[in-house]
From TrEMBL:
Pfam family name, one: MatE
Alphabetical keyword list: Membrane, Transmembrane, Transmembrane helix
GO molecular function, one term: xenobiotic transmembrane transporter activity
Residues that span the membrane, as ranges: 27-49
Keyword Isomerase recorded: no
InterPro entries referenced in this protein's UniProt entry, alphabetically: MATE_fam (IPR002528)
Protein name according to UniProt: MATE family efflux protein
GO cellular component terms given for this protein: membrane
Family recorded in the similarity comment: Belongs to the multi antimicrobial extrusion (MATE) (TC 2.A.66.1) family.
Amino acid sequence: MTFIPQIQISSRGAGQTHLLGVYMQRWWIISLVTSSILFPIYIFAVPVLKFLGQQKDVADPAGSFTLLVIPQIL
């Protein structure tokens, strides 16, 4: 279960249903900002890892893996 459904359930239980839309908007903004920051890191993982001194035999498979898991951040 993610954070937003827990907040929505708590709001509904506390009788603050007027705040559900506000929480959803905040969640979308936070998710958009976070994914915008992580997306380039995922795309350029191999050069970043090599720049940080990681060995080529580790950086290449890690870069391939990060390309496969990009949909999880969206």
